[in-house]
Amino acid sequence: MRGAKTQGSNNRRRATARLARHHTHVAARRRHFLHEVSTRLVNTHDRLVLEDLNTAGMLANRHLSRAISDAGWGEFARLVSYKQQWRGGQVLFADRWFPSSRMCSRCGTRNRILTLADRVFACDCGHRLDRDLNAAINLAAWGEKHHQTQAREPEARAPVINVRRRDGAGPHSGVGETVPDDAETDTLTTSVAVV
Length: 195
Ligand SMILES: [Zn+2]
Description:
With 195 residues, the protein is mainly alpha-helical. It has one domain (2-187). It has helices at 2-44, 55-59, 62-71, 73-87, 131-150, and strands at residues 47-50, 90-93, 120-122, 128-130, 160-163. The strands form two sheets. A three-stranded parallel beta sheet has the order 2-1-5, sandwiched between helices. It has a two-stranded antiparallel sheet with strand order 3-4. The longest helix has 43 residues, at 2-44. The model is unreliable at 151-159 and 165-195 (pLDDT under 50). The structure holds zinc ion. Zinc ion (ZN) is lined by residues 104, 106-107, 109, 123, 125, 127.
């Protein structure tokens, strides 16, 4: 009896240790990935636009919560910010009410029926494109317009890139793999100091 019990507890201990190693491994891999991507982005772009996220709000949505907390988006924003600062580049944080996902990047009309499931943005004006690309274009335009008010550095000359939580952010970005899905940005409310 005692033998079996001890055996069971040893097994459990081993399983726990294995799981802990697994978590450590996953965390290390994620950190490495975030470092790699953020370094690549700041090395190739003088200006980056990060989009605000209502992380707290999204965490309340259990479908998104797991993915968001796994994504390390806040950590990514932090890395990009300080690395860009080292380089003397710019990081702009899009206004938290900015409807990047819902606005047509061609005519500016709001698409009010867009849902998270819609991967393609379609407007009455006939404009049709990947939803993340549409949002990225909107953010690029936003960055162009606002960089003078937010910037401390002289105007950057490099192209603007938009960092979205999902892939499709632009030709240079592979950031999105860390992130779950596009949220309804225009309804999000959290500050982005560190997102
Ligand atoms: Zn349109």
